[in-house]
From TrEMBL, chain B:
<protein>
    <recommendedName>
        <fullName>Citrate lyase alpha chain</fullName>
        <ecNumber>2.8.3.10</ecNumber>
        <ecNumber>4.1.3.6</ecNumber>
    </recommendedName>
</protein>
<keyword id="KW-0456">Lyase</keyword>
<dbReference type="GO" id="GO:0008814">
    <property type="term" value="F:citrate CoA-transferase activity"/>
</dbReference>
<dbReference type="InterPro" id="IPR006472">
    <property type="entry name" value="Citrate_lyase_asu"/>
</dbReference>
<keyword id="KW-0808">Transferase</keyword>
<dbReference type="GO" id="GO:0008815">
    <property type="term" value="F:citrate (pro-3S)-lyase activity"/>
</dbReference>
<dbReference type="GO" id="GO:0009346">
    <property type="term" value="C:ATP-independent citrate lyase complex"/>
</dbReference>
<dbReference type="Pfam" id="PF04223">
    <property type="entry name" value="CitF"/>
</dbReference>
<dbReference type="GO" id="GO:0006084">
    <property type="term" value="P:acetyl-CoA metabolic process"/>
</dbReference>
<dbReference type="InterPro" id="IPR037171">
    <property type="entry name" value="NagB/RpiA_transferase-like"/>
</dbReference>
<keyword id="KW-0963">Cytoplasm</keyword>
<dbReference type="GO" id="GO:0005737">
    <property type="term" value="C:cytoplasm"/>
</dbReference>
């Protein structure tokens, strides 16, 4: 799936993550800022990438500002950002969820 | 070699610095030799010096050990002014031996390390930019971290030999009688500084408030003081202590506090004449409030409260629920003011408070203590020194010392953000699990299996689920996932002494 527009979901409150998706053409490129990057950086990138793959998004620039979010939060924020970026926010892709 | 809590202590450090590896929390009854400082005799007529530069030029030489206290906390002005003068004079190779380092001192210490002025540090702790710099290998020699009681011990036994102590005081007369209670920069107890005043080769008081001779009550006495320096400002009163202490509204902290209170009141130690120490954290303050109600309901009064004092503890004193406060430092203005006005609030020095090599310290008489933790592991070992990223950001404070109480409770949330507090192995062991009796989290408690008696008495409290510590660790991991192990280099950046002076752990340089 092609990203139609730059979209954002989430906040920078503690225990949240802010995901910004924009067009890319070189796979999924995650730029992660996180206080727990050393311990959980790989896991955070994996959750974001896996979630985007379920939307069949294969090219995207992802800016992720993490404030200690758990996996379920990361997944939820990524789904929302992806729905918005694909202009699908009114037609939720339930199969992906 | 591996010490008794399983930490690898490099052999060269044990050998070169003549250290023993940690073995036991038992102190026993050894004979200990104390040291006494050289005294330069004077009649007291010419002690006043008008500038920091003049006193530094007169007293500080390359290679010396200098000390400060941290009673002025984040409002401290003295440390930065004195260190700047020392750097300006090009003095090198000093050992910095303060009672602790606060954030307001960080940038100056980093600067002094970079200029070669400071080459060794011993402290209770460090945080922020300084902790980060040290963890990244800025200092060639490892920092030595000691608890408040251990610092007192090391000074008394000559392990820390202070050449010049620079002690900021909110008042002094011209001959050096001073206390911490009066003046713009009043902070209450001088507990930690009293060690320096008693044992340093040269004692320099710095004050912005010269008062008529003789100044009483004198916590630091003219018999101990070499010079009195008049300065423009000792500290910023607004930042010395936090203002009015606010009770937490955080439901997680309140839940923890409630359970801590249940543990205390169901323990055999909760009886008339018991004693306790609480810290200054949100949950600890809330415990004081619950404990007050429990004391009223059960008509129980405490004989004394110990340690760092806050206004809620002072309120208990005024209400007659606590008979005495034994005060080594004051965390807020209410506590500091009270020391001036209430004879039942006794100033105590760090040795009286917590020195293990003593003819009894106050902590030896302590029944119940509530302490915090950055991490606690399945062996009940506690880390209050390094963060989850391995970087130094804490202080031992009185943790190891107070943990010798009859009932030592660690109050901590199961997780903080994505970081588990209950872990398989703490990053750095500060207080050994042998000292810890109960862990209280928001989901329930874990009792150290070595305490068979407590397993029995605390296992059936309504609303207080009991888990094994392994179960709590698993619960934490289910929430946050399994973190990747931290990476460190081979370089040792800090040594963690146990309160008896043995090595309980070392901190390695973080790999980035």
């Amino acid at each position: 799936m092609e990203i139609k527009k730059t979209a954002l979901a989430g906040t920078t409150e503690s225990s949240d993550i802010q995901i910004t998706l924009s067009k890319g053409n070189d796979g999924i490129d995650v730029d992660l800022t996180s206080d727990v990057k050393k311990q959980f950086g790989d896991q955070i990138v994996k959750v974001i990438t896996d979630t985007l793959n379920k939307f069949q998004i294969t090219n995207a620039k992802v800016r992720a500002v993490d404030k200690g979010a758990l996996d379920c939060v990361i997944k939820a924020r990524t789904i929302t950002a992806a729905s918005r970026a694909l202009n699908q926010e009114d037609q939720i892709n339930w199969e992906v969820l | 070699m591996k010490n008794r809590v399983g930490r690898e202590i490099p052999d060269d450090i044990l050998k070169d610095k003549n250290y023993k590896a940690f073995e036991t929390t038992e102190i026993g009854h050894p004979d200990k030799q104390r040291v006494a400082p050289i005294v330069t005799v004077t009649n007291g007529d010419n002690k006043v010096v008008n500038s920091i530069k003049e006193i530094v030029e007169k007293l500080v030489k390359d290679g010396m050990t200098i000390s400060f206290h941290h009673h002025l906390r984040e409002g401290d002005q003295i440390f930065n002014d004195v260190m700047q003068a020392i750097i300006d004079l090009g003095i090198k190779d000093l050992t910095l031996a303060p009672s602790s380092l606060t954030n307001v001192m960080n940038d100056m210490v980093v600067k002094a390390i970079k200029s070669g002025t400071i080459t060794n540090i011993t402290s209770s702790g460090m945080r922020g930019s300084l902790g980060d710099a040290v963890s990244h290998g800025l200092l060639k020699n490892p920092v030595v971290f000691r608890s408040h009681g251990n610092r007192a011990r090391a000074i008394e036994e000559g392990k820390i030999k202070i050449d010049v102590a620079f002690l900021g005081v909110p008042n002094s007369d011209e001959v050096g009688n001073a206390n911490g209670m009066e003046g713009d920069a009043a902070f209450g107890s001088l507990g930690y500084a009293l060690m320096d005043a008693q044992y340093a080769r040269r004692v320099v008081l710095l004050t912005d408030n010269l008062v008529p001779y003789p100044n009483t009550p004198a916590s630091i006495k003219q018999t101990q003081v070499d010079y009195v320096v008049k300065v423009a400002k000792v500290g910023d009163p607004d930042r010395i202590g936090s203002g009015a202490t606010r009770f937490t509204k955080d439901p997680k902290e309140l839940k923890i506090a409630q359970m801590v209170n249940e543990v205390i009141t169901h323990s055999p130690y909760f009886k008339d004449g018991f004693s306790f120490q609480t810290g200054s954290g949100g949950a600890a303050l809330a415990v004081t409030r619950y404990l007050r109600q429990a004391m009223l309901d059960n008509k129980i009064k405490a004989s004394f409260a110990l340690g760092g004092i806050t206004k809620p503890t002072v309120d208990l004193l005024e209400e007659g629920l606590v008979n005495k406060i034994m005060d080594v430092q004051d965390f807020d203005k209410g506590a500091a003011d009270s020391m001036k006005n209430n004879r039942k609030q006794q100033e105590i020095d760090a040795s009286w408070y917590a020195d293990p090599d003593n003819k009894a310290a106050m902590v030896d008489q302590l029944d119940v203590v509530i302490l915090s933790a950055l991490e606690i592991d399945t062996k009940f070992n506690v880390n209050v020194m390094t963060g989850s990223d391995g970087v130094i950001r804490g202080a031992i404070g009185g943790h190891q010392d107070a943990a010798t109480a009859k009932l030592t409770i660690i109050s901590a949330p199961l997780v903080r953000g994505r970081i588990a507090t209950v872990v398989p192995d703490v990053t750095t062991i500060v207080t050994p699990g042998d000292s810890i009796d109960v862990l209280v989290t928001e989901v329930g408690i874990a009792i150290n299996p070595k305490r068979h008696d407590l397993l029995e008495t605390l296992s059936n409290i309504p609303g207080v689920p009991v888990y094994t510590i392994e179960e709590l660790q698993q619960k934490a991991q289910q929430i946050v996932g399994k973190p990747k192990a931290l990476e460190f280099t081979d370089k040792t950046v800090a040594l963690i002494e146990y309160r008896d002076g043995s090595l309980i752990d070392v901190v390695k340089q973080v790999k980035d």
